[in-house]
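Hello again, I could really use a second opinion on something today. My current little project is about how a certain protein chain folds up. You're getting the sequence in one-letter code plus the fold written as tokens. Here's the protein in full, and shout if anything looks odd to you:
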Amino acid sequence: METKIDAARELVIFIDQQQFKVENREYTPRELLTLAGENPAETTLVLKHGHELDKLTDLDKPIRLSNGMHFVVFHNTPTPVS
């Protein structure tokens, strides 16, 4: 049985330019990274405020989402140079 989120309680957020519709409640960075298909042990969720970036390093600290929030994912592993 599929559960439908009430439109009044639904928010749209973006993680790495991918749109997600989520329930209007607090989420941890760990939950949002998992939602985006990322491994929280290897990535960091970053909130975009205009041109500023705010790293959410505490994976278990709940954050209140608002409609239209944009996040990016930073990968913690070094990037190989060819």
Summary: The chain has a mean pLDDT of 91. The helical segments are 29-35.
